[in-house]
Task: structure prediction
Amino acid sequence: MEDKRNIQIIEWEHLDKKKFYVFGVAMTMMIRVSVYPFTLIRTRLQVQKGKSLYHGTFDAFIKILRADGVTGLYRGFLVNTFTLISGQCYVTTYELTRKFVADYSQSNTVKSLVAGGSASLVAQSITVPIDVVSQHLMMQRKGEKTGRFQVRGTPEGQGVVAFGQTKDIIRQILRADGLRGFYRGYVASLLTYIPNSAVWWPFYHFYAEQLSSLCPKECPHIVFQAISGPLAAATASILTNPMDVIRTRVQVEGKNSIILTFRQLMAEEGPWGLMKGLSARIISATPSTIVIVVGYESLKKLSLRPELVDSRHW
Result:
């Protein structure tokens, strides 16, 4: 009974690395397609002043759909797919760091905390330039300027397509800020995502262990994990959303100071301004985290070295 209740964690040395990376890229792409519209909505909600344009997540969804169609919900998506690279760097760093920390501590909480924070540091160093460009693309609306930069239209009044828009935004960032512009908000990103990642993994394992002790031993482990993921994501989102709002404003509005951005936000909108976009963040995080957790745990099981398959209970 104890063995069946105990959720066995598949570590880096247990994996067939070729399977792990091939399946991992495919899984990550599917997840990004499903949650990207809510990422776009969250960005717009966090940048707008008060409720000047959208009154909430659902209102933003309907207005964007009416104004720009389905493609409006995927502005900047092609650029954002380059974060697949950072995603693979994240999981590799996470697993290798867990292996390294295991030489000094057998505590799963310590391993998860250190590995989660380290993985986020590596991933954000790759992701921030991509995020800066894709966020400016997310802010494009037909005939209106909602961010620092506006994509130039064609003579017929239509916006340039796909990577033409991307090139235009990149040129404008370079002219305005130089290469440093692509790392605008880097510190704010680290202050957002390192704590978010460092908190998510320990809470994920904590919730899974608690659910395992409460549920019948016949209940599959993947059920605990699928429930634990969104609970951990909601916990991490609530704790880190204030910094996420500031990060988004720094990157999109071109601000240079985290402290000044915070003061301006508090003066204009009060403490509730720090919670802007939280519902969109949780809504996007819940289904995506279920898919990520089920996908990631299944990915690790599929990538398990053949000689270890029969020794595990799922």
Summary: The longest helix spans residues 221-253. The two ends are 13 Å apart (CA to CA). Residues 154-160 have pLDDT under 50 and may be disordered.
